[in-house]
Amino acid sequence: xxxxxxxxxxxxxxxxxxxxxxxxxxxxxxxxxxxxxxxxxxxxxxxxxxxxxxxxxxxxxxxxxxxxxxxxxxxxxxxxxxxxxxxxxxxxxxxxxxxxxxxxxxxxxxxxxxxxxxxx
Length: 120
What we know:
The chain has helices spanning 3-22, 36-41, 47-64, 69-86, 91-99, 101-118, and strands at 25-26, 33-34. By secondary structure, the chain is mainly α. It has a two-stranded antiparallel ribbon. α3 (47-64) packs antiparallel against α4 (69-86).
């Protein structure tokens, strides 16, 4: 398998993962979307820690795709912000719905890869 095919396959998995974690479900009659990150984050004490650990998978994929150190640091920051502020009772649950760290990280990675292909 060519290197680019492997990157495309991994990027497709990253998009699917981010969608499941941040955008999978919709509130009926609205444009409000949320995912497993928001739902699991409702569990007091362990929810946000669990979703942060799961979010590290996406960062691992970015590392395996040789994302730059700057991109990896920004991705870690997004997960840290999500886990820290998401842990605040009630307000943190609303923040989880808004922040969507997995979606942010998927977009960061995709933009980085597109730039890397454009500027070999």
